[in-house]
């Protein structure tokens, strides 16, 4: 999937993947897509819940080995 | 400014002593709804940490002044952040050291009683997950039943008591938690027993736990006798220890009974379950003290934190032992069952030795409550 920006949050523990995602999102335009890479397993449920509560659209989650990839469209 | 940590042990003491506590749980809503720190005198607020990143002002007004406040998250990181933010707003709050993972792994040893010819029986209460393990000690020897994954706790405890672990039993192949039995046996040279009917796919050597097996510990010869009691699994076996205690595994709990579906055969095993509960157990002495492998709700804990009740009392009070109609019993234990425990298939495979996940993965697999009962 094509992303407008990629955020590498690998190796970061909770809450940092979401803190960084949120910061990145603030600088983006509505409709743009951010790709996030993370290794914290808890990010899967939290990113889903965060996107929902923030009005963003979680387009896809992919697991490749230890790395979780998220694509979120800014709402 | 550093904020205070509260350990899982301190929280466990508060729960057992029914002390007041206010928990601000900052995990996501689903995780909180699925599994949380339970206690009779705990108040809760669940606000995910990601809704507090701009500031904690909105929750400050909802926090009580007169109660200790504990911020809880999955692994600790977010709760430290939120506790710091609260501190900056002038609110005194601690965070749970190690988060819900530490809570899940904490074991509280509680002495259940003395053995007749000398010796002691301990129950290890895994308060965050509701698992119960046992260690009988007599004359420098110990036997362990249904040990949980945290093998070091059992090894250290036996060492403190100056006891050599001789026998390690699992009442059945567990589906809700990873057994520490094999690891303890390997570390100590003890014999590891499993019911053969549950162990058909097991890939390591074990001793057969069969009906009528008797072992003794110590010179005082504390007897441990096996009683075949299938139903939760086809191999499920109970123990009578010192003619005083009945370890029921996952067949009979204080306020519920075992579910027959976790190995996939509810319809086949419901008859066994009924037979074990309504015939085999009914023949045993009412004075036996029932010690199950789980508790489901905090109300099942006695005041000292132990989980134990006379068999005769359970025959009077436990709903699952008082369903006369066989069809009604069948329906209760096969329909409307609670969700199955997290990752229960992988947990069974791990307990069979078929897979060996890293410790971190094992922790993740065990997240959540045990869910081994039907009520």
Task: Describe the protein.
The complex is a heterodimer of chains A (75) and B (375). Chain A is an alpha+beta fold and 75 residues long. Chain A has one domain (5-73): 2-Layer Sandwich (Translation Initiation Factor IF3), CATH 3.30.110. Chain A is built from 2 helices and 4 strands, in the order E-H-E-H-E-E. Chain A has helices spanning 16-26, 43-54; strands at 5-9, 33-38, 57-64, 67-73. Chain A starts with a strand and ends with a strand. With 375 residues, chain B is of the alpha/beta class. Helices cover 27% and strands 24% of the residues of chain B. In chain B, helix 6 (151-160) crosses helix 7 (181-188). The mean pLDDT of chain B is 94. Chain A: This is UPF0033 domain-containing protein. Chain A: Residues 7-31 form the UPF0033 domain. Chain A: It comes from Planococcus halotolerans.
Helices, strands, pairings?
The complex is a heterodimer of chains A (75) and B (375).
Chain A: E1 5-9, H1 16-26, E2 33-38, H2 43-54, E3 57-64, E4 67-73
Parallel strand pairs in A: 1-2
Antiparallel strand pairs in A: 2-4, 3-4
Chain B: E1 5-6, H1 8-16, E2 21-25, H2 29-34, E3 42-46, H3 57-60, E4 69-72, H4 77-88, E5 94-96, H5 99-105, E6 108-114, E7 120-126, E8 131-138, E9 141-145, H6 151-160, E10 164-169, H7 181-188, E11 191-194, E12 207-208, E13 214-217, E14 222-228, E15 237-241, E16 245-249, E17 257-258, H8 266-280, E18 289-292, E19 309-310, H9 311-317, H10 326-334, H11 344-351, H12 359-365, E20 373-374
Parallel strand pairs in B: 1-5, 2-3, 2-4, 4-5, 9-10, 10-11, 11-12, 16-18
Antiparallel strand pairs in B: 6-7, 7-8, 8-9, 13-14, 14-15, 15-16, 17-20, 18-19
Helix pairs in contact in B: 6-7, 8-10
Protein name (chain A): UPF0033 domain-containing protein
Pfam families (chain A): TusA (PF01206)
Domain UPF0033 (chain A): 7-31
